[in-house]
Amino acid sequence: MMGATHRSLRRDQDKSITTESFCISCEISPKRIHATLLSCATMQERMNAANSDKAGQIIDAGPFGQWLTQARAALRGNGGMAVPCGECVGCCTSGYSILLRPHDVALDVVPVKFLSTAPGLAYPHAKMNPLENGHCPMFQQGRCAIYAHRPQTCLDYDCRVFAAAGIQTGDSRPVINQRIRQWRFSYESEHDQRAHEAVKAAASFMTTQASLFPSGWLPNNPSGIAVLAVKVYQLFLDGSEPLETDADVARSLMNAARAFDAMLLSSPTP
Ligand code: SF4
């Protein structure tokens, strides 16, 4: 099976199949996602349940300070997060390509016909493309058919990162965008509230001042921007020493991102 997978990927590579970014991979590492997927009988029930959420309905995203601490730890590969997905299956039905890392591919639970070459990554990385209706091919009869062995990318997905950064995930994903609008963080302290404003300010800066960054340095998708904002938010906290120019801010932001990524997995998370 693994040999067949490899050959299939090589064929795709030879044909220069168009690749696309892995928007779902926000690199946060919760240990579970949509744990209730198995409990619902049909996809239609799930979609109806998700769609019945009124646009103005508020969904508790939890205390922001706790979320931020856990998210930053998870980004360093240290711990995970429980995402209160409820009935939402937005990330399984919104046209995402799913990156499969080597340990996912080794599990051999995704049929080869759904796999193709992962852009910029050598085999045994692979990607699983969505079906024409935008559903993940493993989303079957209203649930994940490989839930116990779902890819790390799926385990990593936490759409609260968009709410944290104050951005949406693109017009083509209305279900997820609705969920983002519904999330509401709570605040246990004034500092937590300021931290949230700082994350949003970081995302806004990267969006509005993209020309100040070297070509290709900024992520080209909303999830990448949101994750980066979580990494560098401290630069935008009220009371931080003001930088003279936007170019200085951009330089400091890049340095902060590099410093975050350079931290050891086991380091404490401020
Ligand atoms: S593999 Fe499972 S959890 Fe991941 S997107 Fe597909 S259906 Fe959803």
Enumerate how many helices there are, as a single number. 10
**SSE order, as H and E?**
HHEHEHEEEEHHHEHHH
Low-confidence stretches: 1-49
Strand content: 5-15%
Total number of domains: 2
Q: What is the overall pLDDT average?
A: 80
| Inertia-based shape | globular
Distance between the termini: 45 Å
What is the total tally of β strands?
A: 7
User: What are the distinct ligands in this entry?
Assistant: iron/sulfur cluster
Query: Biggest sheet: strands, sense, closure?
Result: 3 strands, antiparallel
Radius of gyration: 19 Å
Strand order of the largest sheet: 2-4-3
Give your account of this protein's structure.
- Helices cover 40% and strands 8% of the residues.
- It has 2 domains: 159 residues, no CATH class; 83 residues, no CATH class.
- It has 270 residues and is mainly α.
- α8 packs across α9.
- It starts with a helix and ends in an 8-residue tail after the last helix.
- The N terminus is likely disordered.
- The chain binds iron/sulfur cluster.
